[in-house]
Amino acid sequence: MTDVVDIKDLHVTFATDSGPVRAVDGVSLAVKQGEVLAVVGESGSGKTVTARTILGLLPETATIKGAVVLSSKDGKAEGDIVTMSGSELRKVRGRDAAMVFQEPSTALNPVFPVGWQIAEGLRARGKYSKAEIREKVLDVMRRVGIPDPETRIDHYPHQFSGGQKQRIVIAQALVLDPGVIVADEPTTALDVTVQAEILDLLRRCRDEFGAAVVLITHNMGVVADLADRVAVMYQGNLVEQADVRTLFSAPREPYTQQLLAAVPRIGEGLERAHERAARRPEGWEDQKPAVEAKDLRIVYPGRFRQPDFVAVDGVDLSIKPGEVLGLVGESGSGKTTIGRAMAGLTKVSGGSLEVLGVEMNGMKEKQFKPVRRRIGFVFQDPATSFNPLLTIAQCVAEPLIVHGKAGDAGEARGRVNELLEAVQLPTSFGDRYPHELSGGQRQRASLARSLALEPELLIADEPTSALDVSVQAKVLDLFDELHRELGFAALFISHDLAVVDMLADRIVVLHRGKVAEEGTGDQVLGNPQQPYTQRLLASLPVPDPVAQAERRAQWEELRAAGE
Amino acid sequence: MTTAPATAPRRSLWARLPIVSQLRSSVGLQRGMLIAGLVLAAIFLLTALFAPVLAPYGFAQLREGDELFGATQPPSAEHLFGTTVGGYDVLSRLIWGARTAFFVIVIAVTASLVVGVLLGLVSGYFGGWLDRVLVVVADALYSFPSLLLAIVLAIVISGGQSGMWSGIFSAALSITVIFVPQYFRVIRAEVVRIKAEAFVESARVIGSSHWRIMVRHVLRNSTRTLPLILTLNASEAILTLAGLGFLGFGIDPTAAAEWGYDLNRAVADVASGIWWTAVFPGAAIVLVVLGLTLVGESLNDLADPRLRKRAAGAEPVEDLGVELPADAPAGDDEAAAASSTTASSGPDDGPDAGPTTKEGAL
After folding, report:
1. Domain with A330 in it: what CATH number?
2. B359 and A80: CB-CB below 8 Å?
């Protein structure tokens, strides 16, 4: 088979304010016709830069060295992207290589109908009549699985769901029948159940359209599900390249081994949960819960005559002291809203939510203030949850100062150092500014801040979803360790079942503001009763190509049954 | 210069100061603009500061000993820039005028800064009806021609003509009223944005008071654009002051020197060939405004990473010639890239770069 893309000794350097940065350092890669090559690596590994070079989509500040030879699908034309001029590049883009972006909601222009946008590539070629263009667009929309394309062709992006938008972005890439599609984290912004469908579509891009797919991802489950071959990148270098089964069963390089070991797998957390359950004293079950929600309703009022949005609709749940409750759900299920309501950031509209003995429905800030010191909150994005102008020590000292445990940051420094040590950060990091820490380090500091007042309740809102897998594993271990030592009750919110499974004693699955299923990890993940939970579990790709092939078959069955 | 050792992880305080940090990060034409602006501004500041030393005569001085200077004398050894129709020394009034302009800028900018930032902070942070009312008022102020507003205020504050300090204050405060809405809107927009950031929410979860959140977390993060508006407003303040003086609502010539007043008095001279009374104050206004605007505009460009030019990468010699020269005009990069690739035997091509690029030519 011929190579559609042949990258030879690629070097990419970016000019930045602090001098040149090497993003890609001597990578050689080939993509064969009709194969799915997954490029995996953590953030900063240069995987996106490498893939974007295939389309010549690097910013002005980049300096490229090496060769990226792109061949057309029929093998008649080939050219080196690195030396191409702007007009040559335009000819090649779309015809030979196309791109699928990470965020479907920003990749589509909101003021044009989707059909028009899909046709953009055809129009740019200028050799089709209007009727032909429409015919082609309808055909490609049908093939990517948009129901009723004849009416949908004139709809605007906001009238489609996230998954459908991503289908349209893929249709945009497919309409010119390119030899290779570069998919940059195509499913990261999507929910698991939607992700499974998009992965299925990408597989069909290979099988039905005969396109090679360069899949950039950090999710090993996605790799196992879709890829034929895997290239592992680390700090701008290609670490390992192998067939997908070989890579997962016998990784050669230590880095790949570490990467694979860090991926959370369902079932790993059961032991820990059993162990914790065994340690609990008798009568624990009868304690007054730290948090109790009864028929909780949270409504966001609609604006300009739009109907109100019911985010949480009659949820019952309780967290006993010292218990970790995992709250799982897809986007829009209301999981974050529940967490925010517990911290007093969102108003409760109906029912009852009792947090550490205070009723949150109709709560006054004055009543709640003394309770705040008993609650810790870890935010999703460690990049924005720190004031960029304060040092880490000052940030961690904030709760101590606000609650009068210390006069200023200097006075609190002793306690801050203790906390930093507890989250395994060197105390010298206290003098750094947030942007000088990596994501994982920042999230540790965030944990330190939330634990500063020794809270009885910790609310963690997707604390690891912005982190790389290896970093995520470390942060989760740390969380578990701290929980064992300090014994706080915790609400752990996540969209990732495997992550929740590692930490939670009990799991609540939310679906559209309602509780779909509730139970221990054994019950919910081992033997789910509700069809929604079953679908959720089956959609989650496991990082093992052999097992994933079986699961995929299972998922297809479930999907067929559901339709 | 007290720069930190190159190995230090963080830049020294000196290097992080506004303007200094921008100067260090600038390149090429932008650096030239910034330096030219800074030089002009520095000359203006030094003149204002050392006016009593630099000026050969007082701003209201009419005679040397018993002898009058005489009206509209051409430039000479005694009067380098000549004398005005009122018999004042042009150079002296020019130098003293810098002082007046400086005072007006400082007072106007400080007052509008304090008022505008405070209102913007409160309005953006709390929102609600107060916010709506303040925004409407700010919009209403925008709809007045600014000079008209300044004239009305000058009349209200000082009844038109006045002495030095009352004149300076009336000019400064009338400028303040025009500027407050600008600061208000900028700060309010930033505050509304920052208010939604996770670190502000985290402060709320901790239980910080509103005042503490506003000052410690919100305000300090929303002042990034201020140095820019500050410099641009300073130049606008000079123009407004000169405009007021020119229209006769400025400061009495015996109380302080003021360029706008001098220009006003020079109107009749121009027709009769007496150029020196108008050119010098006019040039002073133009140069100070130009200097401050250059500083402001360069700060604006440098604050935006998309507009900021960077020094080219450290290894241009071995490149394939695709890379642009650092000061190529933005916008036609594709044409530039095209021309540099078609002529692939460019002068700075490394000897090892050629062969790999050829095989794809169709």
Report:
1. 3.40.50.300
2. yes
Q: Quick one: tokens of A251?
A: 């990784």
**Pick from A172-176, A216-220, B254-258: least confident:** B254-258
Please check whether residues A299 and A351 belong to one and the same domain. Answer: yes
Superfamily of domain B20-303: MetI-like (1.10.3720.10)
Q: Residue B43 has what pLDDT?
A: 92
CA distances to A72, B311, B317, B321 from B347, rounded to whole Å, are 32, 20, 10, 9
**Entry pTM:** 0.74
The answer to whether the Cβ–Cβ distance between B357 and A67 falls below 8 Å is: yes
Judging contacts by C-beta atoms under 8 Å, the chain A residues touching residue B199 are 384-388, 395
Please name the member of B205, B216, B324 whose beta carbon is closest to the beta carbon of A372.
B205
| Residues of chain A contacting B338 with CB distance shorter than 8 Å | 85-87
CA distance A435 to chain B (A): 12
Residue A411 sits in the same domain as residue A523 = no
> Chain A within 8 Å of B21 (Cβ-Cβ)?
no
Domain contains A34: no
Q: CA of A386 to nearest chain B CA: how many angstroms apart?
A: 5
Collapsed DSSP state (helix, strand, coil) of residue A214:
strand
Question: Cβ contacts (< 8 Å) between A70 and chain B: which residues?
Answer: 360
Residue range B100-145, pLDDT digits in tens: 888 888 898 899 999 999 999 999 998 889 999 999 999 888 888 8
Do A460 and A521 lie in one domain? The reply is: yes
- Does residue A489 lie within any of the structural domains? yes
Residues A289, A363: one domain?
A: yes
| A70 three-class SS | strand
Summarize the confidence of residues A500-524 as an average pLDDT.
87
Do A443 and A328 share a structural domain?
no
What is the rounded distance in angstroms from the CA atom of residue A273 to the CA atom of residue A264? 15
pLDDT score recorded for residue B93: 85
Asked if pLDDT for residue B300 goes beyond 80, the answer is no
Q: Tell which of A428, A448, A468 closes a domain.
A: A448
| DSSP code string of A490-551 | EEEEES-HHHHHHH-SEEEEEETTEEEEEEEHIIIIIS--SHHHHHHHHHS--S-HHHHHHH
For residues A406 and A523, state if they share a domain: no
Number of folded domains in chain A? 2
Examine the domain organization and report whether A271 and A416 are in the same domain. no
User: In A208-353, where does DSSP find H-type helix?
Assistant: 220-226, 244-249, 254-262, 270-279, 335-342
* Chain A to chain B Cβ contacts (< 8 Å): 126
Which domain does A433 fall in, by range? 391-448
Across chain A, mean pLDDT equals 86
Same domain for A364 and A512, yes or no, is: yes
Q: Is residue A331 part of a domain?
A: yes
Burial zone of B123 (CB within 10 Å; 0-12 exposed, 13-18 middle, 19+ buried): buried
- Minimal Cβ distance to A85: which of B212, B311, B341: B341
Is the pLDDT reported for residue B262 higher than 60?
yes
SS3 A385: coil
Q: Cβ separation of B322 and A387 shorter than 8 Å? A: no
Over residues A263-286, the pLDDT tens digits come to 888 777 777 777 777 777 766 777
Task: Please give the Cα distance from B198 to A241 (Å, whole number).
Answer: 39
Instruction: Classify residue A68: in a domain, yes or no.
Output: no
Query: A70 to chain B nearest CA, in Å?
Result: 9
> What's the complex ipTM?
0.73
Give me A379's structure tokens. Answer: 């935010």
| Chain B residues 161-220 with CB within 8 Å of chain A | 197-199, 201-209, 212, 216-217, 220
